[in-house]
């Protein structure tokens, strides 16, 4: 039994710490470590974070640079609607199936309907008082949500009110809590919508069922939004 488990692990994670390697374009890269910084370029600004087991598709770019006096190999990957970079020290190469499972179902269509339900996707809505605290921007992001998504941009209110930054935050939040909420199962749009509304365990709370009904009505059965 132990031998089987070890073989399974070796099959899923091909190589740990990919510093000094050259993965093929399209390889599956998975994080090994929690709250690992994701940057907008090699040694660039932090735009989010990732946790162990989150996997992304490598997009073929690698760059060596110095950060705080330490030399790192940085690798670029597809991170939602933008590119992300992270040091190879915190990355594994993995079987393609890890990225297929990790991609879940958080599609542009699902994201768009969450935006529609929150604010009619109004980029000028600003901040509104909602359940004991302000919610800001087209996705009505609260400060705690912003912190959990990795605090992209310059600050909570500015990011929440900027469509691109807000979308980046929402995607990072779903990357962080999607499978956490589902217990490892691949999340659906319903899971993501309920997490957005109810927090890390929102997909298990009956309090988010009405919210999903609204998002589902917006989806209207379209592909990628069910």
TrEMBL record:
Signal peptide as annotated in the record: 1-16
UniProt entry tagged with the keyword Hydrolase: yes
UniProt cross-references to Pfam families, sorted A to Z: Destabilase
Keyword Signal: yes
InterPro entries: Invert_lysozyme, Lysozyme-like_dom_sf
GO biological process assignments: defense response to bacterium; killing of cells of another organism
Annotated S-S bridges: 110-189, 115-121, 127-136, 149-169, 159-165
Superkingdom of this protein's organism: Eukaryota
Name of the protein: lysozyme
GO molecular function terms noted in the UniProt entry: lysozyme activity
Enzyme nomenclature, EC number: 3.2.1.17
Keyword terms of this UniProt record: Antibiotic, Antimicrobial, Bacteriolytic enzyme, Disulfide bond, Glycosidase, Hydrolase, Signal
Reaction catalyzed: Hydrolysis of (1->4)-beta-linkages between N-acetylmuramic acid and N-acetyl-D-glucosamine residues in a peptidoglycan and between N-acetyl-D-glucosamine residues in chitodextrins
Residues of the active site: 118 (proton donor), 130 (nucleophile)
């Amino acid at each position: 039994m132990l031998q089987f488990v070890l073989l399974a692990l070796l099959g899923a994670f091909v190589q740990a710490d990919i510093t000094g390697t050259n993965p093929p374009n399209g390889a599956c890269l998975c994080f090994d470590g929690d709250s690992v910084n994701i940057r907008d370029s090699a040694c660039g600004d932090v735009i989010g974070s990732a946790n162990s087991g989150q996997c992304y598709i490598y997009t073929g770019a690698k760059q060596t640079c110095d950060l705080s006096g330490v030399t790192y190999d940085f690798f670029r990957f597809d991170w939602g609607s933008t590119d992300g970079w992270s040091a190879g020290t915190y990355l594994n190469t993995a079987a393609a199936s890890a990225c297929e499972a990790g991609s879940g179902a958080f599609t542009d269509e699902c994201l768009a309907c969450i935006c529609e339900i929150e604010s009619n996707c109004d980029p000028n809505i600003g901040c509104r008082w909602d359940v004991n605290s302000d919610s800001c921007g087209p996705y009505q992001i609260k400060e705690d949500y912003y912190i959990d998504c990795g605090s992209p941009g310059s600050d909570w209110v500015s990011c929440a009110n900027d469509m691109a930054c807000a979308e980046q935050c929402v995607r990072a939040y779903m990357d962080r809590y999607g499978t956490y909420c589902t217990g490892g199962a691949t999340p659906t749009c319903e899971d993501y919508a309920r997490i957005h509304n109810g927090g890390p365990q929102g997909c298990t709370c009956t309090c988010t069922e009405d919210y999903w009904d609204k998002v589902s009505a917006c989806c209207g059965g379209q592909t990628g939004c069910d």
